[in-house]
């Protein structure tokens, strides 16, 4: 049952939500205790199971209560009714709370000391034969569970996830709104395309050829709110991103969207640390503040990624100096390039997983590897010392031209999974390691055309104060005031201090990014009318909650998620519409050729 | 300034929001008092005005503070900087709080006892010449104000409206979530067309010919949540309705969306009364609960509308019996029909507005009207008695065949406006009269084809328990369990107890409404798998807040509203997109013929 929530969700000590207000039930199915014995109660719930006409277990969102079916003649209709109620039917029961007979108490059940002797009952909605047993539901295919989402929602798991999400968001609101003077402002979701908005859904309007667009975030609006003097804004904002088929992404998702005037990076960081600490579920491991911080460069060098999982070590080490004297061809080759380097990770006890291995540290302190014949005694012992290798450790080497080593970063995570699959306790599954990653570059070379630059975050991000003058001379060297929040190796938030000078914003858009700034002219013009310095952040709520409840997918913390392909499998959306329905929007479908042909025949 | 909010927005006595956390300002511009004299403070704000290099007034969301510009040589740069800062520039000022010289205090200003002697200052963003003076902004055209919305947002009016909205919604959340165990669940906005969903925006998907639709409300989802055992759901839900050009409607709007299991109409009514009382702004007139209630039939008979403004009398009276003996042709004609009747409203002091009049009560108690020659002494005095006419009152008559009298209903409101324009105090502008309207018919004849029926509310509304059997014999006679909440003559909410039987739901859709139930098959099937009895309501948040703050339009309580034509005048949405951008969605624009021709030439 969902006992976790009792006493949760409110600042006021002693205040407990009243789940029985406005209805005729006297108690929920998770509420009754020995103290209630003798009371006449009315319960509503679903039939969890029923046994031989003797008793049944009634379930609601709060828990389970055992109902004793009367056996005497006077209550024969109640007996008949309850004995024949199919599993998952909705039932009202009125009866008297009694102690369970001695020895029949169930200490695993919060209501296990009592039972309710039914006096009257009513079947409110009978359940037809289920396509599967509810308790085995989690083992069924996800497609089936999504088709019958309303049945899956009855599971303890989803009830608990959705309630935790609701309560955590409520605490965040209390923190922002009641404690720190933030204003909850709703911004439009029908807007227009932004530069590079290829992932924005379009919404045809009644004006021929004109389309709204569903924004990927309220970025422009929150900045305009700061120009409008709102001072502190937040919103639990619905955002949209059309990425086609990507696993664990949803076409619509939710972010905790925040913006403040007159703030610097440290201010936003303290705000978010306070926010998470304030709203953190009581039954989870405590989180400590301030969160540690790491530069983008350190993250790439030591973890091979900009979102390091800091729950375990196995950092990437530079062993170029150790191997510089060796005869190994690829090592020498790599070191001959300007940014050439030799990096390594040492996998403690890596030998337990024999799928990947390069250099194994033997019990006698000697190394086992295809490479050892190229390494002298001295190099071997230096390697062991440099990497602090222990018996049965495995070292992975990477040689190459880049400062970053994303391959080793990925191997590091893969190795961790392998070790854990082999039974080694590497990462504490109950621990939450938050990390700030800061000092990102402002621009990165475009993947497709490295001579052109694109924003590492977005074009509104301000340069690092120390690098501001470099913007005009060597933009590739400018660090930004962008920061990411990482939790257990997942990016759960990101933000920046924004540009608040029209001239600088125009320079970034036109000269550095070579974008048409016309489409953003309203925002740039706003920066000329008294724009305060401002900055903000957005937290990915779906991802954050799924990490907190340790769910494998964000679909486990969304009431009605879409499939990989962006479909709603319960209501079958998206769906075909008639040409007449398209007419007011001045659009028609361009059928792919094969479908066109098929229709002709 | 925005003093109204101090001490607001939290349950905890003594708790005040900290507006200065996470930033380097020490105080807001509305905060300093005599108690602060001698303190060194740092303020950030906008230059409200500046006078002759002597002082300036700095403004933020909280208020105004007078800054004294230093005149001594040592601070000449500060003087130069502040004397030359254009109005609406953003400025940081550090200085010492001082008492104003005796006699120069400004009791109208909360900070009017003090001033800040500037020591250092910085222009953070200079404001270019404004296209208009901000203080006169409200007099400008609405189109201009919407184009420069970020300037309009700096007005006291919009700051105050948006903050009140945020805080009222926060209090609603506390009531629902913390006090009554409701779960805040987000539901999808990318769904599929519902039957009769002609007003739903479409969103093309990447599957050729398939479209999502932006739902008008989370109706289906909230019912499915009840089937899923969520028990108590709420959401501050973004909804969409494409109505083309309609004044004071927005293509996207917000509703407080609520659903409960095991509840009846009275339960929902008590919940909403408690919700509004709990969240009602302290500085507005108190509201009393329970709210009065009226049947749909009474409302139409007495007010000629289903959303009566009950702040004043002037009810519609049936005077058929008084005039039955008269010789007036149209009266006799009307009374000869089956539902024929003579209705009247008596406008107190109606003579002050001479635009409409029919029967005037003279000081001597005699009636002045074109009709008096047809009325005997007895009929005249009976009329005066029946309508309780006083000197200078005016009576409007309507004769016709219908039970409802929407013409008199409209005249009643129109007369009230005329009387108030003429200076008569008819409606207390600070009073809030809530009213429940209940017992609506379940079905109404379609306007276009009166032999067919449509749902008065929506097809999921349950019949009134007393009329349930009539559903199968004479559906036109069935009253529903639909209820509307009316505030000062405006519909601010509506809801119903829902059908929770699949058989009944199928009958209503297929047999009564003759709709294709296939598109709702997932919902109907859900009702066969243990659906609890349930009901709910939705409050129109934009309308509710605009009535509370007495704003002429819902655009005054929305940060970035759209124009009449559904356009965003600041960012110019909707906008043209390229054919390439449409390609992934398999659609093309069907240009109207004239535009096609124009393009050719």
From TrEMBL, chains A, B:
What Pfam families does the record point to?
A: GAD, tRNA-synt_2, tRNA_anti-codon
What PROSITE patterns does UniProt report for this protein, alphabetically? AA_TRNA_LIGASE_II
Indicate whether Protein biosynthesis appears among the record's keywords.
Answer: yes
Tagged with keyword Oxidoreductase: no
Any one of the GO BP annotations: aspartyl-tRNA aminoacylation
The UniProt GO MF terms for this protein read:
aspartate-tRNA ligase activity; ATP binding; nucleic acid binding
A Gene Ontology term for the protein's cellular component: mitochondrion
UniProt keywords (A-Z) are: Aminoacyl-tRNA synthetase, ATP-binding, Ligase, Nucleotide-binding, Protein biosynthesis
**Family per similarity comment:** Belongs to the class-II aminoacyl-tRNA synthetase family. Type 1 subfamily.
NCBIfam families per the record? aspS_bact, PRK00476.1
Q: Please give the PANTHER family that the UniProt record associates with this protein.
A: ASPARTATE--TRNA LIGASE, MITOCHONDRIAL (PTHR22594:SF5), ASPARTYL/LYSYL-TRNA SYNTHETASE (PTHR22594)
Query: What is the protein's given name?
Result: Aspartyl-tRNA synthetase 2, mitochondrial
Q: What organism does this protein naturally occur in?
A: Corvus moneduloides (New Caledonian crow)
């Amino acid at each position: 049952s969902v006992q976790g929530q009792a006493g949760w969700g409110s600042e006021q000590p002693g205040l407990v939500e009243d789940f029985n207000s406005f209805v005729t039930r006297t108690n929920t199915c998770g509420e009754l205790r020995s103290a209630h014995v003798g009371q006449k109660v009315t319960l509503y719930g679903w039939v969890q199971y029923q046994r031989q006409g003797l008793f049944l277990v009634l379930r609601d969102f709060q828990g389970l209560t055992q109902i004793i079916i009367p056996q005497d003649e006077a209550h024969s209709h109640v007996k008949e009714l309850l004995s024949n109620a199919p599993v998952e039917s909705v039932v009202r029961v009125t009866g008297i709370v009694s102690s369970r007979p001695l020895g029949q108490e169930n200490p695993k059940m919060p209501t296990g000391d009592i039972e309710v002797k039914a006096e009257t009952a009513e079947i409110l909605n009978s359940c037809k034969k289920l396509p599967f047993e509810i308790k085995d539901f989690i083992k069924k295919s996800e497609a089936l569970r999504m088709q019958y989402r309303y049945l899956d929602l009855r599971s303890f798991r989803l009830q608990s996830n959705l309630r935790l999400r609701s309560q955590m968001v409520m605490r965040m609101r209390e923190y922002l709104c009641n404690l720190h003077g933030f204003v909850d402002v709703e911004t439009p979701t029908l807007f227009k395309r932004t530069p590079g908005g290829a992932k924005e859904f379009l919404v045809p309007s009644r004006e021929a050829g004109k389309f709204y667009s569903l924004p990927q975030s309220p970025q422009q609006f929150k900045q305009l709110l700061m120009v409008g003097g709102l001072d502190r804004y937040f919103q639990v904002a619905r955002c949209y991103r059309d990425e086609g088929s990507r696993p664990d992404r949803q076409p619509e998702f939710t972010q905790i969207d925040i913006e403040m005037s007159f703030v610097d990076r440290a201010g936003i960081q303290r705000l978010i640390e306070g926010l998470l600490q304030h709203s953190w579920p009581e039954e989870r491991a405590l989180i400590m503040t301030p969160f540690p911080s790491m530069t983008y460069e350190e993250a790439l060098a030591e973890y091979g990624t900009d979102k390091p999982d800091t729950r375990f070590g196995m950092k990437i080490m530079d062993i170029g100096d150790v191997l510089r004297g060796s005869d190994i061809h690829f090592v020498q080759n790599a070191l001959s390039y300007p940014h050439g380097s030799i990096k390594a990770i040492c996998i403690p006890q890596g030998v337990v997983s024999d799928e990947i291995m390069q250099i194994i540290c033997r019990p006698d302190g000697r190394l086992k590897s295809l490479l050892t014949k190229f390494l002298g005694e001295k190099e071997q012992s230096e390697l062991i010392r440099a990497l602090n290798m222990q018996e049965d450790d495995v070292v992975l080497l990477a040689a190459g031209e880049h400062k970053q080593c994303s391959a080793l970063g990925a191997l590091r995570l893969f190795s961790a999974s392998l070790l854990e699959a082999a039974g080694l306790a590497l990462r504490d599954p109950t621990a939450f390691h938050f990390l700030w990653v800061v000092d990102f570059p402002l621009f990165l070379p475009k993947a497709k055309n490295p001579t052109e630059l694109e924003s590492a975050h977005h074009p509104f991000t301000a340069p690092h104060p120390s690098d501001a003058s470099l913007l005009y001379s060597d933009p590739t060297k400018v660090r930004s005031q962008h920061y990411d929040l990482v939790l257990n190796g997942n990016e759960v938030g990101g933000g920046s201090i924004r540009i608040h000078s029209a001239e600088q914003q125009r320079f970034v858009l036109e000269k550095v990014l070579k974008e048409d700034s016309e489409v953003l002219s309203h925002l740039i013009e706003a920066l000329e009318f008294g724009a305060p310095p401002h900055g903000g952040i957005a937290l990915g709520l779906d991802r954050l909650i799924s990490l907190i409840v340790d769910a494998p997918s964000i679909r486990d913390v969304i009431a009605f998620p879409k499939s990989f392909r962006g479909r709603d499998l319960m209501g079958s959306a998206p769906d075909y519409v008639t040409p007449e329905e398209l007419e007011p929007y001045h659009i028609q479908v361009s059928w792919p050729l094969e479908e066109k042909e098929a229709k002709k025949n």
